[in-house]
Amino acid sequence: MGFLIYMKNIFDTHAHYDDKAFDEDRDALFSSMFAENVCCVVNQGTDIASSMRSIEFAEKYDGVYASVGLHPECLNENSMSDISEIEKLAAHPKTAAIGEIGLDYYYDISKDLQKRVFIAQIELANALSMPVNIHDREAHGDTMDILRQMKPKGILHCFSGSVEMAKEIVGLGMYIGIGGVVTFKNARKTVEVVSEIPLERIVLETDCPYLSPVPNRGKRNDSTNIRYVAQRIAEIKSLTEAEVLNTTKANAKRVYNIKI
């Protein structure tokens, strides 16, 4: 039968359409995606400028929402004072979350600064009763310590931890973000997580323009490619693609409190 275009059940919980990779055809791409099976995209801020761009997209396109925040790779000596600006951006009616925030120990950025800014942004999200979208790279231990302490609601994006860590995240009431990596041949750990975690606690994402799934690995990613992620999850869990897309759409609407 082919893919069910009319169902409008692709919800991309984590995208970066402000990236320069989309500068030449962004408007056309948004138009074509929403004419197909994409129903919603949450564009993630990584600093003040990209958070503002995310809001611009949300104002321009019905199916786009913004997440605003300071990514650990984008921090500097002014980052703590920038959180007040994030708070202002969070007041926009189409801001759905505080993100992309978190810890990244791959890069040589002060761990103390990263933790302070991460905690402050979770405090902001909790105070505003908003979810967070969390980046965790080579920082599982400190990320989990902070989540246990702060107990935010939201998503651990591009999950790269163990099954045990995923189960604890779910136990905290959060969601696991799964994207193109699950389709890679070397994705044993991600496949195990998908197998063990209830579908009701999984949301789908692209992290576009990065991490395109097979068969488009290495090419620019976009939200339509989520169908390949859904196909792989359906194989792992012995479900249909429609079941995966419909359930993960419902999950995303719930965590972001988006009514579409």
Largest sheet: 8 strands, parallel
Oligomer state of the chains in this structure: single chain
Classified by CATH, the class is: Alpha Beta
Strand order of the largest sheet: 1-2-3-4-5-6-7-8
Radius of gyration: 17 Å
Could you explain the architecture of this structure?
The model is unreliable at 1-5 (pLDDT under 50). This protein has 9 helices and 8 strands. It starts with 9 loop residues before the first strand and ends with a helix. With 260 residues, the protein is an alpha/beta fold. Helix 7 (188-196) links the parallel strand 7 and strand 8 (202-204). Strands 1-2-3-4-5-6-7-8 form an 8-stranded parallel sheet. It has a single domain (8-256), classed as TIM Barrel (Alpha-Beta Barrel), CATH 3.20.20.140. It has helices spanning 26-35, 48-60, 79-90, 111-127, 140-150, 163-171, 188-196, 226-237, 241-256, and strands spanning 10-15, 38-44, 64-68, 95-104, 132-137, 154-156, 175-178, 202-204.
Brief summary:
The protein is of the alpha/beta class and 260 residues long.
List keywords for this structure.
about 260 residues; alpha/beta; TIM Barrel; 8-stranded parallel β-sheet; 9 helices; globular
Topology, pairings included?
Elements lengths: L9 E6 L10 H10 L2 E7 L3 H13 L3 E5 L10 H12 L4 E10 L6 H17 L4 E6 L2 H11 L3 E3 L6 H9 L3 E4 L9 H9 L5 E3 L21 H12 L3 H16 L4
Parallel strand pairs: 1-2, 2-3, 3-4, 4-5, 5-6, 6-7, 7-8
Helix pairs in contact: 2-3, 3-4, 8-9
